[in-house]
């Protein structure tokens, strides 16, 4: 199974720094969702986290902004 781009970058960066690359290679893979799936065709959605509600917006500049 291929590691995520984030794991590849961490391994490469740490290999250059001389850190223990093998410790990173065995970390559990973080789940990955595509923003299109997450937003479901909408430009924004609300995320409830405990008693708080956050708003995730897809901007015209193709950025994601999460606000409380």
Task: Describe it.
The protein has three helices and three strands, in the order H-H-H-E-E-E. It has 68 residues and is an alpha+beta fold. It folds into two domains: 1-32, no CATH class; 33-68, Ribbon (Complement Module, domain 1), CATH 2.10.70.10. It has a three-stranded antiparallel beta sheet, with no helix packed on it. Strand 2 and strand 3 form a beta hairpin. The model has no long low-confidence stretch (mean pLDDT 79). This is Hemic uptake protein hemP. Pfam families: hemP.
Could you give a short description of this structure?
It comes from Luteimonas chenhongjianii. The chain is of the alpha+beta class. It contains three helices and three strands.
């Amino acid at each position: 199974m291929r590691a995520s781009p984030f794991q590849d970058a961490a391994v490469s960066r740490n290999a250059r720094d001389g850190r223990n690359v093998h410790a990173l290679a065995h970390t559990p893979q973080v789940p990955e969702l595509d923003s299109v799936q997450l937003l479901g065709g909408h430009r924004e959605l609300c995320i409830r986290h405990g008693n708080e509600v956050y708003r995730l917006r897809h901007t015209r500049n193709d950025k994601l902004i999460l606000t409380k």
